[in-house]
Amino acid sequence: MKKFLIHNKSLNGKTKVLGDKSISHRAIMFGALAEGVTTISGFLKGEDCISTIQCFKQLGINIVEENNIIKVYGNGLYGLKKPKETLYVGNSGTTIRLICGILAAQNFSSTITGDSSIIKRPMKRIIEPLKLMGANIESDEGYAPLNIFGKNLSNIQYNMPIASAQVKSAILLASLYANGKTTIIEKFKSRDHSEIMLKYFGANISINKNVIESNSINKLVAQNINICGDISSACFIIVGALITKNSHIIIENVGINPTRTGFLDILLKMGANIKFLNVRYISGEKVCDIEVKSSKLKACNIYGHIIPLMIDEIPLFALVASLADGTSIVKDATELKYKESNRIKTISTELNKIGANITETDDGMIIEGNKTFFASECESYNDHRIAMCIAIASLVCKEPIVLNNYKCINISFPNFFDILERLGE
Ligand code: S3P
Hints:
Layout: E1 2-4, E2 12-16, H1 21-33, E3 34-41, H2 47-58, E4 62-66, E5 69-75, E6 87-88, H3 93-103, E7 109-113, H4 124-132, E8 136-140, E9 143-149, E10 157-159, H5 165-175, E11 181-185, H6 193-200, E12 204-208, E13 211-215, E14 220-221, E15 224-226, H7 231-243, E16 248-255, H8 262-269, E17 273-282, E18 285-293, H9 306-309, H10 314-323, E19 328-330, H11 343-353, E20 357-361, E21 364-368, E22 377-378, H12 384-394, E23 402-404, H13 416-423
Parallel strand pairs: 2-16, 3-14, 3-15, 6-7, 10-11, 22-23
Antiparallel strand pairs: 1-23, 3-5, 4-5, 7-9, 8-9, 11-13, 12-13, 16-18, 17-18, 19-21, 20-21
Helix pairs in contact: 1-2, 1-6, 3-5, 4-5, 7-12, 10-11, 11-12
Shikimate-3-phosphate binds next to helix 5.
């Protein structure tokens, strides 16, 4: 399926983006394990989060939608039912990795798998710590399908070898069931939505800098959760406004949890005109309205602790760096190879087709700036974030870029083109 992308536009006006994907997954999962009815407003009805709902329905949880509110009828920590069939997560890495932390502790066995991308993504990273806790998980040499035989788990102290919120969250979920206190030590901090929301649901979790301690508990208690707009979705629109001439937009109600705003911090350093208005807290998460105006940007190098704080936005960084003044370098970003596609390769290949000059390195990219993009035919590799990067690049092209396989955008941002077209009018 091909799409001629919106091109040669500036973006103007006010908008909102749909609910945060990471938070939406967690609200369903924690709601399912809590006692009572959890209500969720602002839930992201993208394909990934719908996969999470499907999996919990298969695990016997009643989940309904009424007037745009999702209601999760929690059955308690020990109330899940053995699924009749294999659990299927589609394209969602967050679903498969987090659920494993729960399934490992149940009194039944289950099998879980996903689409052609999921079965190529590494699962050893969750299997190893969960095995240390006593889990019994069979894999296809570290890849899905995974057969999980529920066991009694024990606590561990775990030094995270990579920065990954998915791994951390799988251990945190398992720790609810493990004897005693589980300690997780992060070298570099990753997104902390699980910590925030689990505490909200009554978990016994304490955080001291990069050390997280979680004690086993008897129950979680249902909550009303209000989900803010997804910063990772907002970043596509923000970059669209920055790189086009005469743009001025406001995106309302966007989550700005500091473990997610690495890219905004880097954009500010590059000279972006971005303002954070009406800063407030909703369901424990920091939220604001973001105002953006067209900006002239200069190059920047990114490496070390900032990488996990902007992990999903690095393809967008490659895009802005290609248009900025000077050469930018990305280091310490090997994790990008294990996303929905090998994002070092896919973003370099596609942006180079339209006039960028990006050299892939072992752990990142060297990005020459001051480029002018031109139209060509591009691929998404079925990776939603690559597809949206290409669509944003098209805004500064004189002719439309043609994008193949664009439907994957529905994974995280189903109304992406509607918003872009409205702001581009
Ligand atoms: C996510 C964590 C990140 C991120 C993904 C969502 C989450 O993955 O890339 O889109 O919701 O926990 P890793 O934790 O594997 O880096």
